[in-house]
Design brief:
Blueprint: H1 4-32, H2 39-58, H3 60-76, H4 83-100, H5 103-126, H6 129-150, H7 156-164, H8 170-193, H9 209-223, E1 232-234, E2 240-242, E3 248-252, H10 259-277, H11 294-308, H12 312-325, H13 327-330, H14 335-342, H15 359-374, H16 383-395, H17 421-440, H18 444-449, H19 454-463, H20 473-481, H21 488-502
Parallel strand pairs: 1-3
Antiparallel strand pairs: 2-3
Helix pairs in contact: 1-2, 1-3, 3-4, 5-6, 6-7, 8-21, 9-10, 9-12, 10-11, 11-17, 12-14, 15-16, 15-17, 17-21
The protein binds zinc ion (ZN).
Length: 523
């Protein structure tokens, strides 16, 4: 039987997707090639496309289209994991979230955050937290009003998590961060005591920028990023973006005196790009053509950048290529030199420069402060002091300016709260997924060392990528790895890798205390 109502709904969802992808093209252009004075016009065009897409989803007619399509699909008796059933579930979820927040409040948020962002840019460059503080307070107040409309059981943070990490809660994140801190702190102390084990000076020689871009492109092409359906361009803050199945773009930045920036940044964005390039083609123009969550997306950037790109035996394969690309700079180096340099661990002030060991301490600190701000335990005026104290407590370093401290991230200025935990979910899942792949196909480590990246890519395509947003993060992790999201595989990975690198095995292997629910991840 022809499902007319479902077809009509799919047409509508396709139109919404078209508008959103068109907006992506405009914002990609804004971040790459747009001339300096194009900003005002571009902001209007993006606002228009955004509100058209919002209207096409929220108008009352769509409630009827959804109900009719649901009745039609139900009459067919399709199983709960059938593509059409999943599509209807996701479309209803998105629509209900979108109609809950009143349009007037959304417009108020858009105006306030635009102003707060401009103030933050100036405040960050002049180290002036007091100028930014009232805007931050306003963003917090508006966010709290939004959470009242979205609804939550225990914490306003839960209402926000639902957008970026569906199924995740504040309580579970607390327990995940507790596990990570308990495992990382002794390892980090041992590493700091052996800091002289790693010399990364080889990365700070002079490297031709064009040669760096060619090499970065060559590496991610070998990983499997498809340049016939993508491109690599320069930008200030690198990102990946998708205009549809046939066009998934990545961006990078390059420093003439720091080899890591372009290469590792390109690997990172290529990981995001590989995920999007490998969604099943039939998901195109539907709300399922997205990652399962921000964290699952980040797990793929981290997997290709860190688990693969910073792996010892992968550098046996990549090093001769790097030496060809930079014969003068790397003439006296070895694979081991680069491997160690790319994995140097240093407790530092800036999150985006953090290594694999310390990164989650940066996100944990933000997670705690965001919750304290949203639940009224911390006043905005006291935030810089609380930030610095937490940095000292968790990382043993204290920023000397707010620019290097509480003003460093863009997130809060644009009203984006509850986004940081996704980076940690991504770190944790990157290893969980990799371990599952290596268990399923034991040749994967050897294949990576020989530059045969397609064994791993094919497994990821089949088990993770092609599903897009079909499964929520925990369901996906459970299905693919036999365990929900859990810290243990990541901690074991850190202990093995950095224990060997810094020669600190014995000092860093206490048993991990278990807290909260969740599997052991040893399946
Ligand atoms: Zn990323």
């Amino acid at each position: 039987m022809a499902m007319e109502h479902l077809a009509r709904l799919k047409t509508r969802l396709g139109e919404i997707d078209d508008l959103q992808r068109a907006a992506q093209v405009l914002s990609w252009d804004q971040s790459t090639y747009m001339p300096a004075r194009g900003g005002a016009g571009r902001a209007r065009q993006l606002a228009t496309l955004g509100s058209l897409a919002h209207r096409l989803l929220t108008e009352p007619e769509v409630a009827r289209m959804l109900a009719e399509a649901e009745a039609e699909v139900e009459a067919e008796g399709l199983p709960s994991d059938h593509a059409d059933v999943v599509l209807l579930r996701v479309a209803r979820h998105d629509r209900e979230r979108a109609v809950r927040v009143p349009r007037a409040l959304m417009e108020e948020i858009a105006l306030a955050t635009a102003l707060a962002y401009d103030t933050w840019v100036a405040a960050r460059s002049s180290d002036d937290f007091a100028a930014f503080a009232p805007h931050l307070q306003k963003n917090i107040d508006l966010t709290l009003r939004k959470t009242e409309h979205l609804g939550y059981d225990r914490h306003p943070y839960d209402a926000l998590l639902e957008d970026n990490e569906p199924g995740m809660t504040t309580e579970r994140l607390r327990s995940l961060f507790d596990d990570l801190r308990a495992g990382v702190t002794p390892l980090l102390e041992a590493i700091v005591a052996h800091a002289d084990q790693v010399d990364d000076s080889v990365l700070y020689r002079e490297y031709d920028e064009q040669a760096q871009l060619r090499f970065s492109e060559d590496v991610v092409r070998r990983f499997g990023y498809d340049f016939s359906r993508g491109r690599l361009d320069l930008t200030v803050h690198p990102f990946a973006t998708s205009f549809g199945h046939g066009d998934v773009r990545i961006t990078t930045r390059v420093s003439p005196t720091f080899l890591q920036m372009a290469l590792m940044g390109t690997m990172h964005e290529a990981g995001h790009g590989l995920y999007e390039q490998n969604f099943a083609p039939e998901l195109a123009r539907t709300p399922l053509a997205h990652g399962s969550s921000g964290g699952v997306h980040e797990s793929q950037s981290r997997l290709w950048e860190n688990v693969v790109g910073r792996r010892r035996d992968v550098w046996d394969y990549l090093f001769p290529l790097a030496q060809q690309a930079f014969p003068e700079q790397l003439g006296d180096a070895e694979a081991e030199t680069l491997y160690r340099a790319f994995n140097k661990v240093t407790p530092s002030l800036i999150r985006v420069e953090a290594d694999e060991v310390t990164y989650n301490l940066h996100t944990m600190l933000r997670f705690e402060l965001e919750n304290d701000l949203l639940e009224g335990r911390l006043a905005v005026a006291d935030l810089p002091e609380a930030w610095n104290a937490a940095m000292q407590r968790h990382l043993g370093v204290t920023p000397s300016t707010n620019t290097e401290g509480v003003l460093q991230d863009v997130h809060w200025s644009i009203g984006y709260f509850a986004g940081f935990p996704s980076y940690t979910v991504g770190n944790v899942l990157s290893v969980q997924f990799y371990d599952a792949a290596a268990r399923a196909i034991p040749s994967i480590p050897g294949d990576l060392a020989a530059g045969r990246f397609d064994t791993l890519l094919n497994w990821l395509r089949e088990n993770v990528y092609r599903h897009g947003r079909t499964y929520q993060p925990d369901a996906l992790a459970e299905r693919v790895t036999g365990s929900p999201i859990t810290a243990e595989p990541y901690l074991r990975y850190l202990r093995e890798k950095y224990g060997a690198l810094y020669g600190v095995e014995a000092a860093s292997a206490p048993p991990l205390p278990r807290q909260g629910e969740g599997g052991e991840g040893r399946a």
